[in-house]
Amino acid sequence: MDQDRSDWLHQPRPTWPPESRDPISSDPGFSAVNRRIDEHLSQGRVSRLTDQLTEHKAVAAATVLGLGALAGLAAYSLMGPSQPQVQRHAEIPRLPDDAPGRTAKQARFGDYAVAGRSVTIDRPRQAIFEFWRDFRNLSKFMENIEDVREVSPGVTAWTIRAPLGMTMQVTSRIVNEKPGEQIAWRSTEDSQIETEGKVSFRDAPGGRGTIVEAHVAYRPPMGALGQMVAKVFSAEPSIQSRRDLKRLKMLLETGEIATNKNQRGEGGKFQKAVERDIQNNIAAV
Amino acid sequence: MRALTYHGKHDVRVDTHPDPQIVNPRDAIIEITSTAICGSDLHLYDGVIPAVLKGDILGHEFMGRVVEVGPSSTLQVGQRVIVPFTISCGQCFHCRNQEFSHCDNSNPAEKQDMSESLYGHPMSGLFGYSHMTGGYPGGQAEYVRVPFSDVGPLVVPDHLEDEKVLFLTDILSTGWMAADQATVEPGDTIVVWGAGPVGLFAAQSAVVMGAEQVISIDHHPHRLELARQIGAKVIDYTQTNVLEALLEMTGGQGPDAVIDAVGMESHGFENFNPIDTLKQKVGMGADRIGVLRQAILAVRKGGRVSVPGVYGGFSDKFPTGALMEKGLTLRTGQTHVQRYYRDLLKRIEEGQIDTTFLISHTMSLEDAAQGYKNFAYNQNEWTKVVLKPKWAKGRQEAGRANIANRAGLSSAPGSVPAGSGAVVDA
Ligand SMILES: NC(=O)c1ccc[n+]([C@@H]2O[C@H](COP(=O)([O-])OP(=O)(O)OC[C@H]3O[C@@H](n4cnc5c(N)ncnc54)[C@H](O)[C@@H]3O)[C@@H](O)[C@H]2O)c1
Ligand SMILES: [Zn+2]
Ligand SMILES: [Zn+2]
């Protein structure tokens, strides 16, 4: 079994002033295009550039970058703060605060870009743990995960939606599991992207259920190009991941996923999954 | 089925749509017997609420019979129900705290982004009320799909006719919550801006809750007359200096609580309103807050400000100084209908609350576009419009608030005209 190398979770927040926040822009082979993006970013004018690209392309590019949508969050953190902000911060020494590391304006942990989100779900911790532990359930609430099959105990093959109607394959292996508390997984070498994730479960205060905290770390998959695309299209995957966790909450709290469609055939894959489960007599949690 | 459909600003039409079907396990399909046009619909009609799309079915005040249920619905086919305009799951943190209009789970995930970036948190799902609140097809239609049908719909007894219970779905509950949030204590003066349906029900609720004095403010004489009829004193703001009058009517102290039952489209030329109007017209997402400004200035020190009137965007010249220095309490929100409707149904059955005095017109759903136009532009006479999907086009009846029906009636405080339903030529 592979080792859990996810100690990025426990590393402190990056300190100021940061090291060069963008290793690739110092790469001599890096294109002028990326520098232009940097300039735009530092002047807060990135939108003009993104405007020139269609929404379809944005979604497509964002998808290919991430393992499901949560991974896309990591892309967001690559953007970091604007240049003037970095300078301002560099001038004053900062007290490390109590916020989760992933909410830092600058969130690089060694080679990895890390992102995460939490959601409070009013269901028992053990039940949610077991739901997630069966990775086949991920496609019931994650937009970009089309299908998950169990290959052998602890190893699952994921089919992920990619641009232009294509799909990508990732094999994922559970590398650390604390029953009822956390699950960590990592892609195996034959996967088309390199990524790892961890989800933890803890009791919410005041009997409010369970706090589910999902983190994903990933190494930019396609070198300089990958990073450029990640920067330009960063917003989309972060929106996706937010939606994924909301759907998880809906499914576990209400047994279904909200839709405004009023024609059976128009219900999407989430509604169909619920319908299948009911036919097969499977209760969500 | 036939349904009132949004085509653009001031352009709604009754079109044919496919009949709704069960999509999720807790769904039910309701065949609508009565539905109404709400002041909130006018914000959509006037184009001041974003994300209403051509082809959307409007309507969020409706009731009818259950015709189909999903496998997890607790309703039975044939039951007669009223359906709250708020879609609530019953199981999230907010629903469990009886904050049904804050439900976390009823707005589809992909529809939550807009309100989340606008307001910091996403809104919940509402029927027929823009894609910010889910884009759910509404109930000014022959049929509607009702999600979480085990939580929202309330079965009503057959001996109460539609008109008596229809407004539980929204405006009656909204008026009640407005008064509840204003907190009525012995000796209190409660002032309500707006004598539209919401303001009228808020005023009546304050009376029922035992306020010493309830004052309604509007400029439509007939609407003010209705307010007087349910026991309120009235001020016509076009004739009277409102702030001065309110001081003088409360022994110089000011009202204990104020209710803004007007919202983002307030009329008039005072309180910086024209500037707000201009900004609203050029699409800056600006709200007209003339009423809210006036209410905050009017209320006494330590008083309560209750805001059922809908706002959607931003505003400036908001009187933060008065709010803070006078130590005011501000309470707002879409109505938590499911929190109030059982108690209100009981009060209707016991005859404590009059729910039909404000209906001026009942007409066929096919004529809904005409209903919208009149409710928006002939506000004095068209006080509340009920639509009947089963009625033939052109059929129309006058309600108790219809001016034709009331000619010659005295408008002494407390007098309730008898009879209803005189037929008017369409
Ligand atoms: N909170 C909720 O859940 C909820 C539910 C239903 C309706 N509403 C809102 O309540 C408000 C009223 O609804 P309605 O159905 O009664 O609408 P309506 O349009 O029929 O009535 C509004 C009334 O306010 C009056 N008015 C306008 N400007 C005024 C001013 N400056 N001073 C005094 N009165 C003024 C108008 O003359 C009109 O009679 C709307 O904003 C509506 O969206 C909120
Ligand atoms: Zn309404
Ligand atoms: Zn809820």
UniProtKB/TrEMBL annotation, chain A:
Pfam families: Polyketide_cyc. Residues 1-10 have a biased composition (Basic and acidic residues). It comes from the Bacteria. Keywords: Membrane, Transmembrane, Transmembrane helix. The keyword Membrane applies. InterPro entries: COQ10_START, ORF3, START-like_dom_sf. The chain crosses the membrane at residues 58-79. Residues 121-234 form the Coenzyme Q-binding protein COQ10 START domain. The keyword Transmembrane helix applies. Residues 1-30 are annotated as: Disordered. SUPFAM superfamilies: Bet v1-like. This is Coenzyme Q-binding protein COQ10 START domain-containing protein.
UniProtKB/TrEMBL annotation, chain B:
Residues 25-153 form the Alcohol dehydrogenase-like N-terminal domain. Pfam families: ADH_N, ADH_zinc_N. Belongs to the zinc-containing alcohol dehydrogenase family. Gene3D superfamilies: Medium-chain alcohol dehydrogenases, catalytic domain, NAD(P)-binding Rossmann-like Domain. Coiled coil: none annotated. PROSITE patterns: ADH_ZINC (PS00059). Residues 407-426 are annotated as: Disordered. Its cofactor is Zn(2+). GO terms for molecular function: oxidoreductase activity; zinc ion binding. Keywords: Metal-binding, Oxidoreductase, Zinc. This is Threonine dehydrogenase. Residues 197-264 form the Alcohol dehydrogenase-like C-terminal domain.
